[in-house]
Amino acid sequence: MNVPELFGSMVFNESAMQEYLPQDTYEALKRTVAEGLPLDLAVANVVAKGMKDWALERGATHYTHWFHPLTSTTAEKHNSFITPVGDGRVVMEFSGSQLVKGESDASSFPSGGLRATFEARGYTAWDPTSYAFVREGTLYIPTAFCSHSGESLDLKTPLLRSMEALSQNARRILSLFGHDSHITTTVGPEQEYFLVDREYYERRKDLTYTGRTLFGAAPPKAQELDDHYYGFIKTRVSSYMRDLNEELWKLGILAKTEHNEVAPGQHELAPIFTTTNLATDHNQLTMEIMRKVAKRHDMACLLHEKPFAGVNGSGKHVNWSMATVDGVNLFAPGSSPAQNAQFLLLLAAVIKAVDTHQDLLRISVASAGNDRRLGQKEAPPAIISMYIGEELEAILEAIVMRKQYNPQCPGELRVGVDALPVFPRDSTDRNRTSPFAFTGDKFEFRMPGSAQAISEPVTVLNTIVADILGRFAEELEQAEDFEAALNDLIRNTIAAHRRILFSGNGYDTSWVKEAEERGLMNLPTTADALPHLTTPKNIALFEKHGIYSKEELFARQEILLENYCKLLRIEASTMVEMAWRDILPAVVGYGRELAETIGAKKAVAPALACGAETALLDEVSTLSDTAHVRLNALQNAIAAGGALETYGSPAAARHFCTVVIPAMDALRETVDRLEVRTGKPWWPYPSYGKLIYLH
Ligand code: ADP
Ligand code: MG
Asked: Which one of 365, 411, 481, 498 has the largest count of C-beta atoms within 10 Å of its C-beta?
C-alpha cells in the first residue's frame, strides 16, 4: 500500500482543486471560503464542472448533498449525473446551482416545534469549508441543512456559526496583543469502540435493535486483570484496522493511532487533529466506515456508550484548541512575558466559560447511553470540573494571592511583565479522571460518549469561550493602562472561578459532596440536564452570538427530550419482547425438563436422590415468577409514559428516567440471575463471554 499516494485520493482537496479548476476560479473559491461569503453562481458553475470531471474519473455516477440532521447519523439522497440529450442518449451533467443548493423534504427529519410553524420543505446548502469526496460511486457534497425560512435543522449550521463567533471574539483579543488573524478551533476526537462476532451479534435482538446488551450475566473474567489495555492486537482485529485505515486514508482522514482499550473487545482509534468542521465530518464518516468494514470482516462494531454492563463503556475524548490560520496553537504556553500574558488570559477565559456554563457542557454530552457511563468509576462524573495540572494551578494561585510562585521567581508574578515559570508539560496530564483537562497545549473534554456527534460539545465550547472572550475584549479595549487592566482581569477571573478547578480523584464519591459544597452543578441524568437548555441565561447567550435563535433552541430541546424518551422506549420494548418471546419460554422449557427428570427418577425408584434437580427447579421457578412480575411492571411503566406526541416534554423524560429505567434494571437483575441458573442449551442468547472475547 502506497499510503502517501492513497491518502486523500478520493477527496476534492486543495491539490485536486488546483488541478481541476482554472486558476482564477480556484482563487475566487478560496477567497469566498476565507471570507465566508456566498459563492457567485458563475464561479459555482465552473467549480461544479471541475468537481464533476474529477468525480467521474473516480467512478462516480451520482452526487449527494450530505448533511447532519438532528439524529446521530448523517443523511444523503443520491441523484445521478445523467441528463438526456434527446436522441435516447445521456450525458453526465452537474451545474453550479446543483452544487450550491438542494431542495430537501424536511418533514421526515426531527425539527422540534419548527415543523409546525414553518414549511415542511428544507434546503441543503454547500459548505465549501469542508471538502467534497467520492465514496462508493457517489460524489458527497458536505452541506448545511436549513428550513426554508432559515432555521437550522442540523448539527452543522450551529457549529459553523459558533466557529465564526469564536473567531470574531478571539480576534479582538489577539489584536490587543498586536496580532491579527482569523482564528479556527482544532479538534482531535479519540474514538472508542467494541468489536464483536457478527454471528453472535445477529443472534441478539438487544444488540441489533439498540446497540447494547439489555440482558447478560457477567462472565467469570472480564477486565479485572487489566490485561487488555495496550495488549497484543489479535490478527482478526489488526486486519480490520488495516482495512479501516485504508478506507479512512482514501478520504483524507488522518487516522493515526490505534490500540486495545481497557475492556476485552474494546479498541480506540485517534486521528491527528484538524479544523473543527473537517474533524466533525471525518468523525461521522469514521463511525460509519467502522461499522461497514466490521461487517466485511464478519464482525459488528459497537459504538454505543455502554454495550455491556460491568465492562467499561466507550467514550470519545474531544481534544480542543484554538489556532491562527497559520497553525499557531494559542494554548501553547509561550516563553516570553507577552506570549504568556496572552496564554493566561485565554486560559482564564476557558476557566470562566466552563464554570459559568457547566450546564451547557453537561447538556452537550447528555444521552440515555452516556448516562450509563458517566460517574460509573470508568468515566468522569456528570459534574463538570477542570484539571489544569498542579504547577499551572500554583501559578494561578500565585497570581491571585499576589505572591511569588517559587524561589526561582522572585517577587510578585506579574502577568505580561514576568515570563511564566517553566512547568513540565507532562505534569498536566496526570489526572485521567477529570471531565475537562488541560493537557499541555490543548483541552481534553472527556465526557462525550462514543456514539454522539462531536458537533454538539464543540458548538458549546466554541460559543461559551467566544462569549467570555468578547466580554474580556470589551473590558480591555477600554482600559487606559492595558497591563494593569490585564493583571486585574486575570486575577479577578481566577479568584471568581477557581471553584471549578479540581485536581483530586473525580471518580471518588467524596467528590460529589465536595462539589456540592463548592456550589457546582450536579445533573446526573439527561432528564435532569436537558430542561436547563432553555434557561434565560442560555437563550441570551446563544441569541447574542447568533448560534441558535430562541425558537431553534426550544426546538433543539424538544428533539433531545423526544430522542431520549424514544430511545428508552425502544430499549424497554426490546426487553419486553425478548422476555416474553425468548427468555420466559426458554426458562419454562428448562423447568419442564427438570420436572420431567424428577418425575422419571421417582418412577424408576422413589428413593433416588434428586435434590439438585428439585433445588434448581425451585430456584428457577421462583426467579421466573419474579421475572414475570417485573416484566408486567415494565410494560405498565412504558404504557404510563403516554403517547409518542408527548415525548418532547421534560415530564415525559422524567417518567422514563425515574420509572421506566428502574423497571428495566429490575427485570434485568432477575433475568441475569436466571441466565446463570439455566442450562446452556436452553438459554436463547450468546453469553457475555462469547461476545467480549472475540475468537
Ligand atoms: P491521549 O489522550 O490518549 O494521551 P494524545 O495526547 O496523543 O492522546 O492526543 C489525543 C488527541 O489530541 C489526538 O487526536 C491529537 O491529534 C489531538 N490533539 C493534539 N494537539 C491538538 C490540538 N492543538 N488541538 C486539538 N487536538 C489536538
Ligand atoms: Mg485521551
From this structure: 365
CB neighbour list of residue 66: distance below 8 Å, 6 or more residues apart = 74, 75, 76, 140, 141, 142, 143
What is the Cα–Cα distance from 331 to 301, expressed in whole angstroms?
A: 35
**H helical segments located in 58-103:** 96-100
Q: Which of 531, 557, 530, 527 is nearest to 656 (CA)?
A: 527
Pairwise CA distance, residues 490 & 475, whole Å: 12
- 317 CA to middle of ligand 2, Å? 5
Q: Could you give the CA distance from residue 435 to residue 382 in angstroms, rounded to a whole number?
A: 8
Q: Which of 135, 131, 130 is nearest to 159 (CA)?
A: 130
Residue nearest to atom 6 of ligand 1 (CA): 439
Q: Nearest 5 degrees, angle CA 101-CA 107-CA 111? A: 90
Residues in the chain: 695
Give Cα separations from 21 to 25, 28, 82, 530, 562 (angstroms). 6, 10, 22, 47, 45
Q: State which amino acid sits at residue 564.
A: Y
Average pLDDT over residues 585-613: 96
Q: Per-residue pLDDT tens for 212-267? A: 999 999 887 766 666 666 667 788 899 999 999 999 999 999 998 888 877 788 99
Rounded-to-integer distance, Cα 196 and Cα 228, Å: 15
Q: If you ran DSSP here, which 8-state letter would residue 67 be given?
A: E
Hey, what amino acid is at 534? T
- From the CA of 319, give the closest atom in ligand 1: 26
C-alpha span between 458 and 182 (Å, rounded): 18
191 lines ligand 1 (CB under 6 A): no
**Sign of the CA dihedral 654, 656, 660, 664?**
negative
Per-residue model confidence (pLDDT) at position 228: 65
Q: Which residue, among 139, 171, 167, has the nearest Cα to 63 in the 3D structure?
A: 139
Q: Helices in 545-610 by DSSP H: which ranges?
A: 550-578, 584-604
Spell out the long-range contacts of 669-672 with Cβ–Cβ below 8 A and sequence spacing 24 or more.
670/623, 670/626, 670/627, 670/630, 671/215, 671/579, 671/583, 671/627, 672/215, 672/216, 672/217, 672/218
Which three cell numbers, joined as nine digits, stand for 143? 452541506
Q: What angle do CA 618, 619, 621 make, to 5 degrees?
A: 65
The confidence score (pLDDT) of residue 423 equals 60
Q: Using alpha carbons, select from 512, 515, 503, 556 the residue that is nearest to residue 534.
A: 556
Cell matching residue 219: 462472565
Binding site membership of 320 for ligand 1 (Cβ less than 6 Å):
yes
Give, using CA atoms, the residue closest to atom 4 of ligand 1: 429
Beta pairing, strands 62-67 & 138-147: parallel
From the list 257, 260, 258, the residue with the least C-alpha distance to 229 is 260
Closest Cα partner for 516 from 368, 524, 372?
Answer: 524
Measuring CA to CA, which residue among 188, 378, 420, 146 is closest to residue 282? 188
Contact 535, 359 (CB under 8 A): yes
For residue range 286-335, what is the model confidence (pLDDT) as tens digits?
999 999 999 999 999 999 999 999 989 999 999 999 999 889 999 998 77
The per-residue b/e assignment along 677-686, b for 16 or more CB within 10 angstroms, e otherwise, is ebeeeebbbb
DSSP 106-162: GGGS--TTHHHHS-SEEEEEE-TTS--EEETTEEEEEEEEEETTS-B-BSHHHHHHH
Query: Which residue in this structure is represented by grid cell 447567550?
Result: 541
> Which is more confidently placed, 431 or 490?
490
Residue 157 near ligand 1, beta carbon < 6 Å: no
Q: Which amino acid is at 514?
A: E
Distance 210 CA to ligand 1 centre (A): 30
CA distance 529 to 359: 7
Q: Which amino acid is located at 535 in the chain?
A: T
Which residues contact residue 414 at a Cβ distance below 8 angstroms, ignoring those fewer than 6 apart? 487
